[in-house]
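User: what does the whole thing look like in 3D?
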Amino acid sequence: LLETEPQMYGEVRSPLYPQPYAPNLQEQWDLHVPEGFQIRITFTHLDIEASAGCHYDALTVLFDGKVLGKFCGNENSADGNHPGSEPLLSPGNTLTLIFKTDSTNPERHQNVGFLAHYQAIDIDECAAEPEEDKEPLCPQICLNTLGTYMCSCHHGYKLRSDQRTCVLSCNDGLFSEPEGHLASPGYPNPEHQALTCQYIISVPAGFTVSLNFSDNFQIESTITDQGPECLYHWLQVTIPGRGTVKLCGEKSPGLIDTNSNTVTLDYYIDSDGWSRGWSLDYSTHRVECPFPGTLTNGRVTPSLSRYLYRDYIYVRCDTGYKLMMDGEELPSFSAMCQSNRQWHLPLPECHITDCGEPKMLLNGGFQFLSGMHNQYQSVIEYHCNEPFYNFLGGNEVHFTCDPDRRWRSNEDLIVPPTCLPVCGKSMNPLTGHQR
Amino acid sequence: IIGGNNAEPNSIPWQVLLSINGKRAGGMIIADRWILTAAHVLTSTEGPILSNNVRIFMGLTVIDTLPTSAVYPASIHIHPGYVNPGLVDFNNDIALLRLEHPLTFSISVMPICLPEGGSTLVNGHMGIVSGFGVTNDQNRKILTNRLKYVELPVVDQEICRASIAAERSKNPNTPLLSDNMFCAGFPEGGRDSCQGDSGSPFSMSNNNRFWAAGIVSWGIDCGREGTYGVYTSIANYLSWINKTMNEN
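Assistant: Here's the predicted 3D structure for the full assembly of 683 residues, as structure tokens:
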């Protein structure tokens, strides 16, 4: 069985089960699961001749030569040692079962033996307590995986080739997540070796980085004539375009808004002295664009107290007004706050709409009653060339320039009325005074 | 016009003067593209005359100053019931001229109204007949270049029919009076329409609005005692007029 491929689960049953077993048996099963797993076995049925100490017939369970249990009897027998329904767990990935029967069997009761199921259970190596006087599996971080485990190291350290222990290494710290945590190697315990560590926080343009140092800050400073200076130990914060600042001492810098999307932290200590180090949480915020301003005859939406990177604004003109930019009419307008803190388009203007020249009226005309330049809300009145033409009774002759830029009557007509000829009306009727 | 007066300028702005192969006739404007006239002025013994032989003048009361640019009809529409080869049957003496371009009406050029559907004429009611046809001077017919008009009463249809019957007894070629015609004039004569007035309007007025009751059609002599002028009754042709205008 050992030579075969390890099984992840299986079944073991006594010979002839569920028929009664024969006398003078000695059967052995060597169960084997992959490395990194242990075996859990559950007896679904066990019915072996009961005797004190399982002296006559017995099933013995062993691991590595050690007896884990010796079982006989059944669920109801007063004698014997029945395993019950609780499973047995082997300490390792093997388990041995030996079933032995004597030469006689009880006459009144035919025992049927046993049926058991087993399965491989992952061993959490990381949870195991290290043996006395032995080092833990992983000195820093232990990660359990199926069948095995992995060691890992805190930031500032890297895994040695033994894949277990960690060595100081703090020069490859690039942080690009929107928020995160940084600490000096070994923090808050002092390192007693020289360190030159660099941490770069770089997030996409349009975001700014804020550093929030924890209160427990301690970098050794040197007292000089000019007061404490960061001569041998320091944390240097470099913000592109804004210079550098060296930090040391025992007072936490607290919150630093860098106003930049990139920050470089250089931590230097020599092998002398005693610095606990530092830790910080960093967060990022979107940059802010200037207030977009107000618009005559229109409005900017949404109305926010601050406008941040990637925020959009929209401009809507009041009814009867249209969006105009550089002499061109726009169907709509939106602008985005860019990473350079500027809107990607300047605000347009809202110009009053016009309906164009009203439709001419054959044998008639029109005049403006209000408004001008055919603008929104202008009102015109059509007329016919009287007395030779006039409108049909009830014809709507007042038209207003509507928001949809059409001349429209109160009765929702867009076609001007028609001038009809006046018939039978002489301007110089035939009259005479003679009788 | 016999026994009438000269029309003042712009007094009959629907009056039309037709000049057809050198003959005068009349017509009336009824819409901005349509002129109503008599069928017989637009036919000859060979049949309907060509439209380019019809010159139309409007807005005139004196034809000494005829404009050089006459209007020509785009099409001529003679009533299909007009069949008068021997000039003895003036039934359905009605025709329409369609203009190619619409008129713009002014003080001198305006349409006359058509009668209301179902309207009837009342005997004795006065109408006005106008035209550029011959007039009279001391019982002689003379040409006139002025638009003239005369007021005439509508004559009882049976009295008119009797006068025509008396004439027929002397001259069998006298046309018959149909129900599509009415008569107007004075029994004593002296006032009448005459040659050259054919196609001109016989108009009546209600509340200073003139409507065309008849079209100068035919008569026995002009202004003679005991005879009357015969006019096509326009009210009988409203459906044909509307149909022709709508279809064209």
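In plain terms: The CA atoms of residues 178 and 204 of chain B lie 21 Å apart. Chain B has two helices and 17 strands.
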